[in-house]
Design a protein that fits this description.
It contains 18 helices and eight strands. The strands form two sheets. It has a five-stranded mixed sheet, sandwiched between helices. The chain is of the alpha/beta class and 356 residues long. The longest helix is centred in the middle third of the chain and has 19 residues.
Length: 356
């Protein structure tokens, strides 16, 4: 559902659209993303999803996912396809995937893989690997896929194309029937959040609507992006999962929990003060107070690894303290209005009685 369009004449006429899309299909793919991630406990639902998988999954499903290894990107790569086909129920989506040409599926996985632009292989090599040329697959395995994060994709590409497709389809089918048994219960909750975001976006500029929905991510509309799709997902919290379909960016953002304990403090209070309770994160805020910065610059300035900076910036963004702007390179900046607002909101919470 398209909810807003922006006409931009600053660099020639173009249209920027925002869509809100919701479906248990996305939740299925993101749950597999979380369960297959070696750092799944960094997700709010990581422990819960891991426990459910261990208790419900058949031996066959467990073996398939173990063989895939850290296959997170495989499931994220299917999010654009789910958006394109527009199916709202899981069985229909799996049927559409079953009807898909096996070579096309492999090509989509390769096209969506998280490969640094400077490392991207030639189109000829990618096309050959998609068609099942094992020499091309070997070339990729020895170069761009040599990193651990491509373990699952590498495993699938080393199969014949037909088996690649059957493996992906079988994992999705088994996980949806054995583990993700609450899909129908989540559907109305996802729809409600989508309607709330649609109402929000209808009254705000595009960049502000995106920032509020994702809790701190903005996008340079002047960049090579024609639109954004916002997808509510329970399993993504506290992270925003970003992928793309052509010139359209896709953001799967964490849905706010609607069933909080009435006696518990608001989740934003806990996240805000937890984010401040770490010296490294305070140092990051101190640097960003001087101006926006890239991940690389922050790492060099603070003499920390990029992965460490990324982890801490993620927590700061989720707490509403940091803004991320997507353009040619991600830029991180301080949300200067967040600190005084947080004090006012905390005062309002305590003034209302808080917990007893």
């Amino acid at each position: 559902m398209t909810i807003q369009k922006v006409r931009d004449f600053s660099g020639g006429e173009r249209t920027f659209s925002i869509e809100i899309d919701h479906s248990p299909v996305y939740e299925l793919l993101i749950r597999l993303f979380v369960v297959g991630d070696e750092d799944c406990l960094e997700f709010d639902m990581g422990d819960q999803l891991s426990t459910a998988f261990k208790e419900r999954a058949s031996t066959t499903l467990a073996k398939d996912l173990e063989a895939l290894g850290s296959a997170s990107e495989v499931w994220v790569c299917l999010i654009p396809f789910a958006h394109e086909v527009g199916t709202t129920d899981i069985p229909t989506f799996i049927d559409r995937l079953t009807d898909m040409d096996a070579v096309e599926l492999r090509a989509r996985l390769l096209d969506c893989a998280w490969i640094e632009p400077k490392e991207r292989p030639s189109a000829k090599t990618v096309d050959a690997a998609a068609q099942g040329d094992m020499e091309a697959v070997k070339e990729l395995a020895e170069t761009v896929f040599a990193k651990d994060k491509h373990e699952g994709l590498r495993y699938l590409l080393e199969m014949e194309p037909a088996r690649t497709k059957s493996t992906v389809v079988e994992v999705l089918r088994r996980y949806s029937t054995e583990v993700f048994i609450e899909a129908d219960d989540l559907a109305p909750l996802l729809e409600r959040d989508a309607k709330e975001k649609a109402a929000l976006a209808a009254t705000l500029p595009a960049d502000q609507a995106i920032e509020i929905a994702t809790n701190g991510i903005t996008i340079d509309i002047g960049a090579d992006t024609d639109g954004v799709v916002l997808i509510p997902a329970f399993s993504a919290r506290p992270w925003v999962i970003i992928t793309e379909s052509g010139s359209t960016k896709i953001f799967a953002y964490g849905v706010v929990d609607t069933d909080e304990d009435p006696d518990a403090p608001p989740s934003w209070v806990v996240k805000f003060y937890k984010a401040l309770g770490d010296e490294k994160r305070l140092r990051i805020l101190g640097v960003l107070r001087e101006g926006s910065s890239s991940l690389t610059d922050l790492a060099q300035r603070l003499e920390l690894s990029k992965s460490t900076i990324h982890h801490h910036v993620g927590m700061l963004r989720h707490a509403g303290l940091v803004r991320v702007t997507l353009g040619k390179e991600k830029e991180y900046s301080l949300r200067t209005d967040a600190v005084p607002q947080a004090g006012q909101l905390l005062e309002a919470y305590l003034g209302s009685g808080g917990t007893t």
